[in-house]
Amino acid sequence: LTLLGLESSCDDTAAAVVRHCGDGPAEVLSSVIFGQAELHSAYGGVVPEIAARAHAEKLDHCVRDALTAAGLHLRDMDAIAVTAGPGLIGGVISGVMCAKGLAAATGLPLIGVNHLAGHALTPRLTDAVPYPYLMLLVSGGHCQYLIVRGPEDFTRLGGTIDDAPGEAFDKTARLLGLPQPGGPSVQDDAENGDPQRFRFPRPLLDRPDCNLSFSGLKTALMRMRDQVMAEKGGLTRQDRADLCAGFQAAIADVLAEKTRRAIRIYLEENPGTPTVAVAGGVAANTAIRAALETVCSETGTAFTAPPLALCTDNAAMIAYAGLERFRIGGRDDMTLSARPRWPLDQSSPAMLGSGK
Ligand code: ATP
Ligand code: FE
C-alpha cells in the first residue's frame, strides 16, 4: 500500500508518501515540511489566522513536492490520509479541504487521521513495534501514557493535569528570552548549565498514579529568574544555562519516575515483556530520551524512540496512521469534518460524528 499524507494542525505544513508491504517497518518515500516559525516569531507564539492562511497557500506545493520527491503520481496512491484533528481548527480545515479536493478529483479513498494517533503509531512506522505497547506521548499540547492495542484502540493510563511539557519548554524559552520553539533552544542552553544550582520541584511524585503536572515548573522558573535579576540586575549567559538545565532535569526526572509507574500499571493487565515507546516533539529531547532509556534498562523493558525528524510534526506519521486505518477498513467520505478536540480513546471520526 502507498499513501499520501497531509498534515496542517499546527505551524508545519507537511505532505509525505509512505509505503508499507507486508510486515516490517514502512518506507518513507518522501516527507516534505514547510515550517512557519518565521511567520510567527514576531508574536511569541503561533497565530492561528496566520497559520491557517499559510497552510492554505502551501499545501498544494507540499503535495507536489512530496510526489516529485517520491518519483510517483497521484494515480500511484492507494488512498489519501489527512489530519482531521485535534489542532488549530483553521489549519485542520485547510488540510481536510485539500485532501477532499484530491480525493474528489482522483476517486481515491479519503482517510481522516487523528494527529495524536499519528504520533502514537510512529514507533510502528520506524521499528515495526508489535501491539500492544506502552506509549508516552509528549508533545506541544499533550502528555499522556497510552496502551496502544491497534490503530484505533487506545487506553489512557494517565497524563498531565495542566500544561504539556512542550508548552512548558516554550514558555520557559519565552521567559528567558530564547527563540521559539522553546524545546531545542532550552536543550541547547541546558548543555552548558548546572542542573543542581536551582532546585526545581518534582510535581506529583508523592502520588502513586501516572498523572503529571508541569505548570508549577514555569512558576518556579519565573520566581528564580526574578530573584537572580533582583540580586544582579540581569541574567548572565550562565544563569540562563543553569535555569534551563534545572528545568530540563526536573521534567526528565518526573517523566522517568512516572514512566516507571506506568510500566507497573501496564504490567498488571499485560504480562510479558513490554515495549515502551515515546513520541511527540518533546521526545526529540536527548536528556529526556536518556532518562527514559535508563528506566527501561533498569526494569528490563524494551525502549524505542523514533528518529528526531519523526518526533516533531510531519506527514509521514499521518500517512502511516492512515495506512493502518485503511488496512482495517477505515474510510471517510466528503462529510469528514475537522475537529479542534479529539481524544484518542474514542478514535474513529465516524464514531464521533454519531454524537458519542
Ligand atoms: P500536539 O502534537 O500535542 O498537537 P504539536 O503538534 O504542536 O502539539 P509537536 O510538533 O509534536 O507538538 O511538538 C512540538 C513541541 O515539541 C514544541 O513545544 C517544542 O518546543 C517541543 N520540542 C521540540 N524539540 C524539543 C526538544 N529537543 N526538547 C524539548 N522539547 C522539544
Ligand atoms: Fe504534534
From TrEMBL:
Cellular compartments annotated: Cytoplasm
Keywords: Acyltransferase, Cytoplasm, Iron, Metal-binding, Transferase, tRNA processing
Residue positions binding Fe cation: 115, 119, 313
Region annotation (Disordered) ranges: 338-356
Reactions accelerated catalytically: L-threonylcarbamoyladenylate + adenosine(37) in tRNA = N(6)-L-threonylcarbamoyladenosine(37) in tRNA + AMP + H(+)
Cofactor: Fe(2+)
Residue ranges occupied by any Gcp-like domain in the UniProt entry: 27-320
Family membership: Belongs to the KAE1 / TsaD family.
Protein name as annotated: tRNA N6-adenosine threonylcarbamoyltransferase
Native source species: Phaeobacter porticola
Gene that this polypeptide is encoded by: tsaD
